[in-house]
Amino acid sequence: MLDRTLYPRLDHKVSSSLAKKVAISAMSLAIAFSVTSDVFAAKPSKTLRTTTPTTTTTTTTTTSPTDTTTTTVTTDTTTSTTTTTTTPPTTTTSDSSTTTSTTSPTTTDTAYDNRVGLGSDSNGIPILEKHSNARYIYWNPTLANANDSNPGTDPNFPKLTPAGAWNALRNGYGDWLLMAQGASWPEGFGYIANRSGLSAQYPIVVTTYDPGDPSNPTSMRKGIVTLGTDATQRLLASTSAQLSLNVVIENIAFSNAGFKNTSVFLNEYGSGLVSLNWLFHNVRFKYTQVSLASTGADKVNDVLTGVIFRHCSFSYAWLPSTEHAQGLYYERTKDITVEDSIFYHNGWLNSRDETNGADIYKHNLYIHTSAHNTMFRRNVSGWASSHGIQMRGGGTISDNVFASNPINILIGGGTNYYIDNPNGVSGTLTNNIVLGSSDINTKLPRGRGIDFSNTDATTIASGNIVANIVPSSGNTMLTTYNRASLMLDASPFDISTYPIYVTWNNNIEWNWNNTVNGVDLGIDKLIASSPNYHLTRNNNIIHYSTPFGTNLQQPATPFPDPSRDIGTYAASIGAGNEADLWAMMIDNPSKPWSKDISTYIRAGFNIY
Fold first, then answer.
1. Which residues does 144 contact at the CB level (< 8 Å), separation at least 6?
2. What tens digit of pLDDT does each residue of 458-476 get?
3. Per-residue burial over 269-306, b = 16 or more CB atoms within 10 Å of its CB, e = otherwise
4. Tens digit of pLDDT for each residue in 400-430?
5. Measuring CA to CA, which residue among 257, 262, 316, 320 is closest to residue 286?
6. Strand runs labelled E in 454-576
7. Mean pLDDT in residue range 272-301
8. Closest to 70 in 3D by CA, of 37, 105, 38, 108
9. Nearest to 32, CA basis, from 259, 206, 214, 213
10. Between the CA of residue 478 and those of 224, 256, 407, 445, 491, what are the distances in Å?
11. What Å distances lie between residue 350 and 354, 356, 416, CA to CA?
12. What is the b/e burial string over 364-378, where b = at least 16 CB atoms within 10 angstroms of the residue's CB?
């Protein structure tokens, strides 16, 4: 049975047959699988900025541990390992109470969401330390001695199934589940019990280890394991206030080689503001859709927070045409962070036809009107069924790259937004790159860069580049208002009641001609219809427009190479063609792809 939260429920009608299929509710993380990609060698990552950490202490009763701990921070490759040694905390732990005194590590980076773990290194690798009272539980199905009746603490006698290993974790201790590098388990996790870490700083960690050196922390957190799933699988199931909190999941490729309607769920129920403190790091959701939602009784106030996706990839989510697959979907949330991740080809299968292809309800990322204050930064999102990102509830979209999505960015809107956001939503869009567009299918022409709907007076867009649209063969974008680098979109709302505000300063709109007979179809046609469109434009380069105010049609110094795109970037790093580059990004999401592509594109516009 599929989880109801997989599908956007307020932006379209759900058929009765679909409603029967999506009857399961709670907080869901759902995964559905479709195609495979090859692994390619990636360009070395670049270092992001580092900052001096602070020291925080929370203490009541303490004891002195005798062991020493090693923090290992690594990439998913075996060639780059950084080890940070820190003094362990003093802690008294029981199933009913915990007290901790912690000191932040010496290397951390505030460019990342560090609510879970002990910070991040300059490449975004989370700094995770095994607590002195925690223990390792080993999973290795390749050993003849593997059995779920084993305690799992001896690597020579590991657990046989992932669920058996998870269930051996103690609640409230911050135990680590170590999975043998390179192992696979087609059946996936299955239904597993609620387990929580000691704290957000000392979470449960599900990661990998080297079977040849199982007790060495410097050999851990490398490589990948592959887990399959089916439609009944759940990564975590909960239907009560007994929530699983403080968990890190990393170095897993959720995959299924067949085009099956398969799912893995993360189900939670909570009341009020529930801080889950879950971090997904270097997780590849192939053939995947991921859904996150609270189903507490109070639809306005029962919300989830503290979920982070970093260095993840979401690709090839697909379900039959009557159902709506998203790469990532969430609702009734607050302060969710998605950073340094890859979104590609979600919502459609092999062709953009109306039977098994793209439609208006399937997106790389769908953020519901009830999802507030989302942070979406340094991601790459391309070739969605419809939207590269549809951020209904507002938030921050910064330093991302969008490519060839029919609608690359939409902020605001939703048919029921007047319930969740009666005063509009606030959006901040800075330093994003939008490269090209496409049609949804032959009957649904598009070609949009950035759309705004019911955004409030605080909404600002600056430093963005929207460039180089390439119309699909035979589409009608050239003669309809669908083609727009910047669009204010009131549909389907009453613009006299729900105004749109946008401050659009210091952006570049280049080679995206959305004028017919001198009329800017994305802006002027709409503004003329209502005084409730409030658009301020200053210091922009608008390639197709006659200069006005402080806005120019051409820069004073010609751009050196404004035609750059994803394909030319692929060639510049020896990655072959664009398809090869996407395959590389999907299977190597830990690389700083958004930063590197953005730097390359901006250089073509003389921006360094």
1. none
2. 999 999 999 988 654 444 4
3. bbeeebbbbbbbbbbbbbbbbbbbbbbbeeeeebbbbb
4. 999 999 999 999 887 666 677 778 899 999 9
5. 316
6. 460-462, 465-467, 484-488, 500-505, 508-510, 515-516, 519-520, 533-538, 541-542
7. 82
8. 105
9. 259
10. 46, 40, 15, 10, 21
11. 11, 8, 33
12. bbbbbbbbbbbbbbb
Distance CA 291, CA 327 (A): 8
Mean pLDDT, to the nearest integer, of 510-523?
63
Specify the pLDDT at position 340.
98
Query: When comparing pLDDT for 485 and 375, which is higher?
Result: 375
Residues 205/179, Cβ–Cβ less than 8 Å: no
Q: How far is CA 521 from the centre of its chain?
A: 32
Longest dimension (CA), the chain: 78
Strand partners, 412: 453
Total number of residues shown for the chain: 608
Distance of CA 477 to the CA centre of its chain: 30
Contact between 119 and 53 (Cβ < 8 Å):
yes
3-state secondary structure of 112: coil
Instruction: For tokens 């979104």, name the residue.
Output: 343
Helices (H), 253-374: none
Look up tokens 């503004």; give the residue. Answer: 527
Q: Which of 253, 319, 243 is nearest to 276 (CA)?
A: 243
- Closest to 116 in 3D by CA, of 108, 128, 104, 105: 128
Amino acid at 569: Y
Residues 6+ apart with CB under 8 A from 605: 465, 467, 508, 510, 559, 560, 562
Please classify residue 328 by burial: count the beta carbons closer than 10 Å to its beta carbon, then call 0-12 exposed, 13-18 middle and 19+ buried: buried
pTM for this entry: 0.81
Q: Which residue, among 10, 82, 12, 72, has the nearest Cα to 45 in the 3D structure?
A: 82
Distance CA 282, CA 313 (A): 8
CB neighbour list of residue 116: distance below 8 Å, 6 or more residues apart: 126, 200, 203, 246, 248, 277, 278, 279, 306, 308
